[in-house]
């Protein structure tokens, strides 16, 4: 961490003060709502708060047209601020930014952000949906979703820059090394580049181990205003900056298959926080597929276009490497219940609070959390810092 970095001071600061997950893996004993209720209960308890303190509710996922209304009724909460923004896996980073903005504006004091999914139990991942708008030019011709869209981006990156399957595999191997240090991770067996390359081809050039897990799971994050810091039972993790955007809905309309919206949301978040990429101590970057990470690293500016394959090679993002990333094992080896972004926030908060045991990044004070949603469609970046 740079000793001289300057942080932007908000008129009214916001911080993550509680985080929790429900059971992950396969959870036939839980519903989407009960997953969120359990995670919300534990996150509020960790913060030393209860449901009566919550005046804002954020969620994304199921229940059609009224997800926050259904959830609020289930939890027994009557919020005065509500947000069901759904931009895929990056929704929860966006929710943190929206909660921080509402806190700064004086609209709310305590926000509860939740997510739950039973996609593995229900076997709902990848079920065909009716083609609408530009999807009518993809779905009828057999493009498998979402893996086919990411495979197109991976193939384009290989064509333009010479990126290799071995470099993609490095992302999965590093994630597994972190997962081996996380007792909650379901996959902790050793993994090598050769293992990734020997796994079945799913959609060329992406193999099975280039693809995220398919799990159930739920999570919750509590964000509070600085007025409440004295009331909470944890070390607050301040929301220093945030940015979000979306560039397309269908992959055939992505402006550039090798550049994501991180090129906009990342600089916006860093500028708001008043920090630079060199100041970041730990990064939690959405890893729905190995190519997602390579594209994101380049778009955020950690390396130049075409250089991400070299950037992640040699264990650089693994434990002991120079660039700690996805320190719980990520979507590739920890969990991925359809929309992974909330788990990025949970892990970043724990890292900045120094609670990660064998996988703890020494001296971590500043984290970059980056979510990706849809088919490389939406991005949201959050900069978090340990409260001083």
What does this 3D model show about the protein?
With 388 residues, the chain is of the alpha/beta class. It contains twelve helices and eleven strands. The protein has helices at residues 32-47, 67-75, 91-104, 119-122, 147-161, 165-179, 193-198, 262-273, 290-300, 308-312, 330-333, 341-352; strands spanning 14-21, 56-59, 81-83, 110-117, 201-203, 206-207, 217-225, 237-246, 282-285, 366-373, 378-386. Strands 3-2-4-7-1-8-11-10-9 form a nine-stranded mixed sheet, with helices on both faces. Strand 2, helix 2 (67-75) and strand 3 (81-83) form a beta-alpha-beta unit. It starts with 13 loop residues before the first strand and ends with a strand. The relative contact order is 0.21.
Write the layout of secondary structure elements.
Blueprint lengths: L13 E8 L10 H16 L8 E4 L7 H9 L5 E3 L7 H14 L5 E8 L1 H4 L24 H15 L3 H15 L13 H6 L2 E3 L2 E2 L9 E9 L11 E10 L15 H12 L8 E4 L4 H11 L7 H5 L17 H4 L7 H12 L13 E8 L4 E9 L2
Parallel strand pairs: 2-3, 2-4, 9-10
Antiparallel strand pairs: 1-7, 1-8, 4-7, 5-6, 8-11, 10-11
Helix pairs in contact: 6-9, 8-9
Features of the shown structure:
388 residues; alpha/beta; Peroxisomal Thiolase, Chain A, domain 1; nine-stranded mixed beta sheet; two-stranded antiparallel sheet; 12 helices
Give me the CATH fold name.
Peroxisomal Thiolase, Chain A, domain 1
Q: Determine the fraction of residues in helical runs and give it as a percent range.
A: 25-40%
What about the largest sheet? 9 strands, mixed
How large is the share of residues in beta strands? 15-25%
């Amino acid at each position: 961490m740079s000793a001289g970095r300057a942080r932007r001071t908000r008129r009214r600061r916001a911080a993550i003060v509680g985080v929790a997950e429900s059971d992950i893996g396969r959870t036939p004993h839980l519903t989407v709502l009960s997953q969120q209720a359990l995670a919300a209960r534990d996150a509020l308890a960790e913060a030393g708060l209860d449901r009566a303190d919550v005046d804002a509710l954020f969620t994304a996922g199921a229940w059609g047209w009224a997800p926050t209304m259904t959830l609020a009724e289930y939890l027994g909460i009557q919020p005065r601020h509500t947000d069901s923004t759904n931009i895929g896996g990056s929704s929860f980073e966006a929710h943190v930014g929206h909660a921080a903005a509402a806190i700064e504006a004086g609209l709310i004091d305590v926000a509860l952000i939740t997510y739950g999914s039973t996609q593995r139990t229900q076997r709902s991942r990848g079920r065909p949906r009716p083609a609408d708008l530009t999807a009518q030019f993809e779905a009828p011709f057999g493009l498998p979703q979402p893996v086919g869209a990411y495979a197109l981006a991976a193939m384009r990156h290989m064509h333009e820059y010479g990126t290799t399957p071995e470099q993609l595999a490095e992302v999965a191997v590093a994630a597994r090394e972190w997962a081996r240090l996380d007792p909650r991770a379901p996959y902790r067996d050793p993994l090598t580049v050769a293992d990734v390359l020997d796994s079945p081809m799913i959609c060329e050039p992406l193999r099975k181990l280039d693809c995220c897990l398919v799990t159930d799971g739920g999570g919750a994050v509590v964000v509070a205003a600085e007025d409440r810091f004295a009331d909470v039972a944890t070390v607050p993790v301040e929301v220093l900056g945030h940015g979000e955007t979306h560039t397309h809905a269908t992959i055939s309309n992505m402006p550039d298959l090798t550049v994501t919206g991180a090129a906009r949301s990342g600089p916006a978040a860093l500028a708001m926080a008043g920090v630079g990429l060199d100041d970041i101590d730990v990064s939690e970057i959405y890893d729905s597929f190995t190519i997602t990470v390579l594209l994101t690293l380049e778009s955020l500016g950690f390396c130049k276009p075409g250089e991400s394959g070299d950037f992640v090679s040699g264990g650089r993002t693994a434990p002991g490497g120079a660039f700690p990333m996805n320190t719980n094992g990520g979507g590739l080896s920890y969990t991925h219940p359809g929309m992974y972004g909330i788990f990025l926030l949970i892990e970043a908060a724990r890292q900045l609070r120094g609670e990660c045991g064998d996988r703890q990044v020494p001296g971590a004070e500043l984290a970059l959390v980056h979510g990706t949603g849809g088919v490389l469609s939406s991005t949201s970046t959050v900069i978090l810092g340990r409260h001083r």
